[in-house]
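Hey,
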Amino acid sequence: MSYSVGIITYHAAYNFGSVLQAYATQMAYIQEGADAYIINYRPQSQVSYYEPLYRTGYSFKTFLQDALLFPVRKDRLIRSERFERFINTRLHLTERVNSPKQLQQFSHAFDIFVSGSDQILNIHSNEYQGEGFDAMKPYLLDFTQRHKVSYASSPANMTDAELMHIVTSLKKFSMLSAREQDTAKRLSRIMGVTVKNVLDPTLLLSRDRWRELVANAADKLSLPNEYAVYYTLDGTKSLLKQIGLLRQLSDMANMPVVIVSPFAFFPASRKLIDGRSIGPAEFIQLLDNASLVVTDSYHGTLFSMNLETPFLSISNGKGSSTRKDQVLERMHVQDSIVMNLRNAVEYVTASGIPKTRCVDNYLIPARESSFKYIRETLQQ
């Protein structure tokens, strides 16, 4: 029997990980025979945060960060267009709705409702900027009484006291899972039920599946034959302090470095290429064809690992860094962790480009276990 599945998650943030995890969750359920759709909920708070080039409704620091990106306005517009194109052509979307009240029209539209991955349980995520706990209710599926499950949802750095605000809603779910091992244990303790640890959705799809997506993409990037990638979520001030190190990385690796820095401006050059205009499909192409990826990003790390691209993952072992550290330890590639960009440059200087790492011996069994969980969510 084929079930209809409605997935709600952060699918329309201009963030590679958010959009690609939504795509992967949808495709995983389709692979298991479900008729899966992404519930196209785009609240005004998220639209206001991601769509304007210059955000005036937030702090002065946020506006200044955007204003510093004025020289690359054209590339930012191309980036936005590529995100929208991916969202609207690659995701199976319902009718767009903008308010929790409008979600009521979907209350009986699907057999099974899935509260998807990403930090949808984290009140501190960018998507809840300036909002209270009520903003989380749509992602907790409070608009329906039908079969509810979660897949790889993350509360990230929420405290136990903050989590108590959503326990009542979570107890209405028949199955719960989390993408971090420590989070699964913590939620199990707080909820008094078993919360399964599953893979981030982006790891559910094989590297060949991701390459098929790129092969069918409308845009193809024009890239050097050999290049390294530095993908960071730092702002302009932090990135500019790293320019000297990035030039050293280019020299030591003997190739240009493509810098993907959505929130920072830097002076591009022959050695340092600006890659900010890429969208989700181009992001995969860029990482897949790179000779080396250096990143402080969770999903930048996961995609590099899955695509078997040599990588160094920057982590100080604290806060949000522990999310990707747990995955790397589980896949037995924790030796790919470096403390900072300087350590990455020192690694390349001393040892050259890291070797390609195949994690299939650990990833495939974990993937099979996660698909087993998905199949169980379909058994009402």
